[in-house]
Amino acid sequence: MSWILGTDDLGPLATGAAVLGSGGAGDPALFELLARQVLATHGPVTVYEHAELPEDAILVSTGLVGSITAFTEKPGNGYEFTRAVIRLRQALATSRPVYVCGYETAGVNAFLPLIVAAQTQTPLVDLDGMGRGLSWLDQTTYDAAGIPIAPFTLTDSHGHTVVAEAITGHEAERYIRTLTVSMGGWSAFAGYPADATAVGSAGVHGALARALRLGRNLDAEPHRRLGSGRVSEVSWQPGTEAAHGSIVVWLGPPDDRPLRIETRNEFLLALDSGRIVATAPDIICLLDQRTMTPLLTERVLPGYQVDVRVYPAPSRWTEPGFAHLASPAAFGYSWAGP
Amino acid sequence: MNARPTVSQLLAGQVLEGASLLGGAQGLHRTVTDVHACTPAEADLSRFGTHAALVLQSPVGYQLEMLLPRAREAQASVLAVCAEPAAVLGSTRWLADRLALPLVAVPSAPLLDLAQRLHALVHGDDTNRGLTCARLARQLGRRPASPAETVHALNALLPAQCAILSAEGTPLAGEPPARQLDHLLRAAAPATIRDEAGAVIALPAGSASGRLVPLWLIAETADITDSELNTITAALQIAAWAVTAWSATHQLEAARNSAFQASVLTELLTAGDQVTAHTVGHALEAGWTLDGWHIGVRILPTDTASRRSQATTTRLRQVLAAQRISAPLVELGDSWAAWLSEPDEPAPDRFSAVVAGVRRSLAAMPGAALVAGIGKAQPGPAGLARTLTEAWELAQIAGISPGRRRVEHAGATDPRRLVLAVVSGNETVRRSHLLLGALLEPSNNVLLETLDTYLTLESSASATAKSLHVHRNTVLKRLDRIEQLLQMRLDDPAIRFALRIACRAAR
Q: Where's the S-Me-THD-like C-terminal domain (chain A) (predicted)?
């Protein structure tokens, strides 16, 4: 059933999107403000479930690619994402109804399809290609299912637009990262145009609703609690492409032992006494105990009192044919034994 | 098995100088038996065996942390990582502490270099021992080394004073050990004694006959480590083979020579005045001088325990040489024949010196009940036979019991020789046969030997029992039986005297 997403939902959505970000996908605060302004101007957005779409519908996914830090330092006007979707619709030159959705319902990217839908009055579908925060654009369930990313568009705040055709997977990721550097460190993306049926059988359903639900109540769904304690060490490996780091949380009584978290943009591994107790694609989340808000990997500092939780992975990532793209090995982690 | 270093000892050594112990101090006492370079991806750590030191090249933090429980499960003794200590997080250190598995960071150490140096440290004892044994084997292996050469090689290679002793403890080579080793040598088994004063390692060697150990290799040292002890033991085992080879070769040669010499001497003794050129040739081949004057010496055992053996012959040759009696010594039956050859007739004082030398020689063998007879100097090949025959007759009347002389010689025993001549006469022999009667039957040999021994040992039943290795009651029963057979009483001194002569003549 479709539902209405209004300005009152934006606060909880920011919290829930940060939970799904698993320490990555950026701080949504600025995008929450942007969305609040857009929704104030254009009114609330109706969110559709995939089952409600007409058979001939085409879905396009949108979001930010590149550095969220760069966006924070050099913010856009908020219309870049809408222009990317419009340019993609032009490139598609189709008379079929076009719906918009996200490729990553986590962190900042949870807000961008919402802004586009409000500005273009295009229906928003609660469907995406990750269902959680992940590092690479080609790390989507769409890629796993063979849905091509192209044609896709990239726009920047200066009005530059790049339309790419006939490029897929890892090559597309490489081009996008190179172009994004030239476009100021970040760009608005619209891509993965596909039939609603194909996207429906490949995408992650209901991540927006899940984010909202968790944002309103962090205990709204079953999860594992690995413990609470004080962050005692944070170590970053210099020179790595993703933010490779290790965090030690000294669990308080009665556990009274260290818990080690490994990060590469997101929290990806948790080790207790040398044994793995949680891995991606499950969503490892460090909550600041003072505010009960999720922490980004780069904002975890020694002395923070945190709650370490593990929320279940979107079920799509546990299915054969999909799991390999979000497993620890996909991030370069390897170890001997179980 | 060599002593292996503990983790503490490794840390104190030069190889791990500058290394930091990050955790697991409770496991520092563990021994390290082997060293392996490995990666965190190693699937089966148990293949490295227990008590191993595992060396890793800058492992990624989480991999190191995950390796720790697996290494502990595989009973590794220590993990050494080529990494800066700061790169290892507190959770890893805590886990090393909890598992009591020492975790050591060695900054800027190339993996293989570190592993190789640790390996040399752990297996250094094996290497040293192997090198020492190889050097010793090279020195002893070219030909059967003599005891002196063996001891020389051992002393040069080992941190110990080595010697080769006879079964009785007499040094054949090397300095006699400072300690009393009688109890050790009697045990006839390898032994090691370690105490505050140092250590003694004793290893039997040589080709043993029965349960007797012919030779002993002894190493004695003031202070010693376990490693040195192992090296010394291993080297002695190699030397034992060399000594055994020498002993066996020596014995074979001696046996071959002994048989040849006995044959040539028998030819000489039986030739009388008719010594053939053939016999002279054989004598020359044996290295003997038949020309000139000869003083014959015959040495006899007086009991079964002192019967001729290779060891006794060797010892006899040594003690005679020590008295400067450089005479050929030939094994003949159960006895020995020796003679001194000189170009001119020996002066009386020369003869006396030989007698004194033989007497001292026998005294130097307290464990062997040997007596000797020394014949008058005689010239030429026939003279050699005559002096040896005379020596044999004199040796017959020599004895070790009270009232008898251990060495009888032609220079001072004329009255005795008269008696000897009487008891050896044909008429005496004939009468003796009549007197002894039934005792001369082969089935009564034991009784005749008992009677002869009893009378020789001054009619002492106890001494007879001891000499014949039987119980005194057995001797008494046999004497009863002898009295019955001869129908004479042995408590009559006149009867005893007559029987003594008869027994002597009946030999």
A: 170-334
Is A274 in Cβ contact with B90 (below 8 Å)? no
Domains of chain B: 7-122 (3.40.1390.20), 126-248 (3.30.450.40), 289-413 (3.30.70.1230), 425-506 (1.10.10.2840)
For residue B413, pLDDT beyond 70 = no
- Structural tokens at position A63: 């979001």
Half-sphere exposure for B102 (CA within 13 Å, toward CB): 28
Provide, as residue numbers in chain A, all residues whose Cβ is less than 8 Å from the Cβ of B67.
Answer: 274
Q: How confident is the model at residue A179 (pLDDT cuts 50, 70, 90)?
A: very high
Residue B162's nearest CA partner among B232, B215, B225 is: B232
pLDDT at B172: 81
Tokens in use for B426?
Answer: 């044909």
Residue labelled with tokens 């900042």: A108
- The domain spans of chain A are 3-216, 224-311
**Mean pLDDT calculated for residue range B449-472:** 88
Residue B339 has pLDDT above 60, yes or no: yes
- A262 to chain B, any CB pair closer than 8 A? The answer is yes
Task: Say how many CB pairs under 8 Å bridge A and B.
Answer: 64
The reply to whether residue A273 touches residue B42, judged by beta carbons under 8 angstroms, is no
Domain A3-216 is found in CATH 3.40.1610.10: yes
- Positive or negative, the Cα torsion across B284, B289, B295, B300? negative
CA–CA gap between residue A45 and residue A33 (Å, rounded): 16
Tokens of B98: 């909890």
Contact assignment for B66 to A333 by CB distance below 8 Å: no
The label of the residue with tokens 């010793």 reads B136
Give the 3-state DSSP-derived string for B252-265, with helices as H, strands as E and coil as C.
Answer: HHHHHHHHHHHHHH
B132-156 residue pLDDT tens = 999 999 888 777 788 888 999 999 9
Q: Where are the beta strands (DSSP E) in B170-236?
A: 171-173, 191-195, 198-205, 215-221
Mean pLDDT, residues B382-396: 88
Q: How far apart are CA A24 and CA A134, in angstroms?
A: 7
Query: B483: phi > 0 → left, psi -120 to 50 → alpha, else beta; which?
Result: alpha
Q: Please tell me the distance from the alpha carbon of residue A163 to that of residue A155, in angstroms, as a whole number.
A: 9
Distance from CA of B93 to the nearest CA of A (A): 10
